[in-house]
Amino acid sequence: MKKLLSIITALTVAASATSSLVSCKVITNEFKIEVPEYEQSLKYEFKDGQYKPKESYKNTEADVKKALDGATGTFASSLVTDMINSLFFNANLSVTENSKDIWQYLFRTDKEGIYADGQYRTAGFKKSQNEEIDKYYSEITNITSLLGLMQYSEWTNSNSNEVQSLDESGKPFVLGKETIDLINESNMFESSNNQGITNVKINSTPKLYKGNIGLASKTNNGSSDAKETVYEPIDITKADYNFKYISTDTNYNEKTAKETEDSKGTKGYVDYISGTNLSADFFSQLLISSPEADSTPELDIQVQRVEKQSETSKENFKKQGLVLNSEKSEKDTDPIVFEYTQDEKGNRTSYAYGYSLIPLAPVNLELTYNNNRDLKTGEPKPGSQNYKINLTIDGLSAAFKPVLSFTSNLDLEGKKTDKDGIPYVGWRFMNYQFNSKNIIGYDEKGIQFTEKPSKKMTATNKKFNDFNITDLTFEKA
Known about the structure:
By secondary structure, the chain is of the alpha+beta class. The protein has helices at residues 61-69, 75-87, 97-107, 130-138, 146-157, 161-164, 177-185, 254-263, 311-317, and strands at 18-22, 28-34, 43-47, 50-53, 197-202, 207-209, 213-215, 222-224, 229-231, 234-236, 241-243, 252-253, 272-273, 285-287, 301-305, 337-342, 348-351, 356-359, 363-370, 386-394, 397-406, 409-410, 423-433, 468-476. It has 2 domains: 18-39 and 60-206 and 360-395 and 453-476, no CATH class; 208-245 and 282-359 and 397-433, no CATH class. Helices cover 18% and strands 25% of the residues. Keywords: Signal. This is Lipoprotein.
């Protein structure tokens, strides 16, 4: 059976700095992931009533890896594996109907019959069908696989009139003849060589999303009549997102702060690496690249206390995967409202929903590829050749989930102060994805996605349809 590079989204990835590719014989070969340096201190300490960077601390590679992976782990590792599996996908190796269904599903685009892997085999064409292939390539705007990029470049360089007539801005990146010849010489797309990656170096400069919260200026004031109490909605605008999660204004315990000072950080508000401590740093996250145009996930929100959840809120709450910052139609002018209820004991239940999706700057990777690697041991065979592949990938977005919560502010005796119980909204980084239309795991209406083309595949939605190779160099190491 030919080796098949798995692109099933349920890949299990180690949280360490290594990852692996999976073939249909379940032989895995690890590759190392090198993370970029980060100059600013990632270690935070509690000083003057809030957490601040520990300027005297020098980051280690392990710190950067932890910060990229986040509190729940494996974000950077799983992202790199996703990228490698897409880049080295080969439609020629989809030898069963089941595997064909999977890759067609993951690479499908909004255009019927057009797939983001860019390979003409996607449409079932043969090389002799020039007219059909011309038509197919005229519809392609982005390419996710190296083989697809090779095929597209070879076709474009053959002076196909249909492809050449495309507007330059709508055409994929095209490889030069020397690069094409060298890639062909490497036999990179032969089935026995599809696990040749030995090292992945991330060259992009990470960006720390500081994760401030939007703190309400007041609590809800209610007016009562004979039937029910009506509470005034509170606006939280983009200008309000300037409060730290742990500070004297928000989730602060005076006794814990005193313990921190007395024990020099061994008790109380202890030091942590950014993004790794949810109790101290619920929203900050080191992202694998910078948000485009300094975008942030923070949105204008209304917070409303209610006696019971409204029917509108119930309907929205079912749509957990809604992209809240997507373009709205002229008719859709209703504000984003997060409701909450409060019982007689003061316990609150919040009903926040959806995601904010932020496009990230392109990611640059440097891959080390060996053209004859032993699939059992992972070691290069005698006479094999190493290649350096430097490439830029665009189309990545970061998904942030809103959290509606309430301040917790206690004095030395553990009693609540007047700063306790004020609503705030924060945005928690959840995942990366190559899809800007909706959130992985949810359909276009924001409802949990249940369709599965295969029982072996995790439910997802157009995982790679915005992935795009925008630059590439290929040379012998």
